[in-house]
Amino acid sequence: MRILISCHPTQGGSGVVATELAMGLASRGHDMHMAAVERPFRLGDNRDVHFHPVNVTNYPLFKYPPHDLCLANEIAEAIVAHDIQIVHAHYAVPHAIAAILAAQAVQPHPVRVVTTLHGTDITLVGSHRDFYRVCRHAMVQCDGLTTVSQWLLDQTMKEFDLPEPPVVLPNFVDCDRFGPRGRAGWPEDGEFQVLHASNFRPVKRVVDIIRVFERIQRQIPARLVMVGDGPERGLAEELAGELGICDRVRFVGPQTAVEDLYRSSHLFLLLSDYESFGLSALEAQACGVPAVVSDAGGLPEVVRDRVTGRLSPVGDIEKIAQASLDVLGDAEQWAAMSEAAVSHARRTFCRDKILPLYEDFYEQILKQ
Ligand code: GMT
Q1: What does pTM read for this prediction?
Q2: N or C terminus: fewer CB in 10 A for the chain?
Q3: pLDDT number for residue 273
Q4: Nearest Cα residue to 184 out of 225, 215, 218, 229
Q5: How far is Cα 227 from Cα 258, in angstroms, rounded to an integer?
């Protein structure tokens, strides 16, 4: 199949999933294209995916550069030049809307539009009055609509009351890259490494990560590694200073080889208000790292409570710290959880299992 994927190229789960999908489908022989304002960071130096940079033209009359129109135009150009059969938009705003416009612009060229909803595009952005109508219009006009979890499907139907429910196609992990080989062992005399990775947006509650870690390191020798960057990084750094644990916490910014950081860790924390899925918790588990996550959103679909990690009440610092200490409390139990995390990730969310679902979905859409 000839498929073009458009996504936000910046650090964030939707861009990661979109890029992994493009690379994975290219490795299965499909002619894959991506369009974005810059090269998606997960694409690295991959040469199997054709990248179409979106050039955002400005003109003195425009107060704001018309990014979304330039995106739609680039998609339309690529459809015609490469005889694209499917445009797959990741994140409704603005990708689904731009894809619909591009498909209309190239008529009568036959092209189908698929959109994957990722979470905040529904819960925060798309449902906001400023986007609601065009967002719903794009979802209704798409030939296929998917969500990354059952929870997000339910939220979408609640917010948008669509004539047809989307299809759940869960996120996935490349089990060759994100695997347990070389993972950290139980630190007999050393210290535990606790990890968090996100875009530090308010929904991630990074301040809770610092508070929970402060309680953990009171009981056991531990260090915290904070991966990523975003609006609440300053707050988290400040709090680490106030709590006197600066020497125990490293803010390492965005990382390309994040799998090495997972493998050198003993515990992964994701304490968001909610996550539609929580891709980082899946990647951590695939590397053999038990995850303590919020009992909210789609996270219970990804982490098995007391088997591969713990589900904890949002914002309850004492309970989350205790759950974390329980996970790190006993070598044998930790090793069993680490093993269970790997097999759960492989059995349920391995790339090789999920990509065929996408292929079947595309084929059904092409037959419509
Ligand atoms: O988490 C973010 O704020 C980034 C966002 C994105 O679209 O880049 O992530 C969402 O999509 C990811 C991939 O499907 C999911 O794993 C995340 O759970 C979801 N984030 C939220 O729902 C908050």
Answers
A1: 0.95
A2: C
A3: 97
A4: 225
A5: 8
